[in-house]
Amino acid sequence: MTSPGDASVGRFLTVSDTAEILSITVSEATDLVRSGELPAIRVGASGLWRVERTVLEAYIDAKYEESRRLALWLQADFAALPELSGGAIIRPSD
């Protein structure tokens, strides 16, 4: 299996290589590219999509950061905060 940091792969990855690295289908990788979530360029006369290795690495890093922030958000202690309901403050009972 290839990895985004594998120098033998070259500067650009095919959508298929990208899908393999991300452990997703080629269709899902193509959707990421077409939506603009994963930046890519069209290369050659056939206009095949190519993802730059460094761009894929940055995408993976950003996803890790997104997951980290979401986990922190979900772990926040909201139970200690009073809730507003119809203008009245309702405190959790102990």
TrEMBL record:
Residues 12-62 form the Helix-turn-helix domain. InterPro entries: HTH_17, SinI_DNA-bd. One of its GO terms (molecular function) is DNA binding. Keywords: DNA-binding. This is DNA-binding protein.
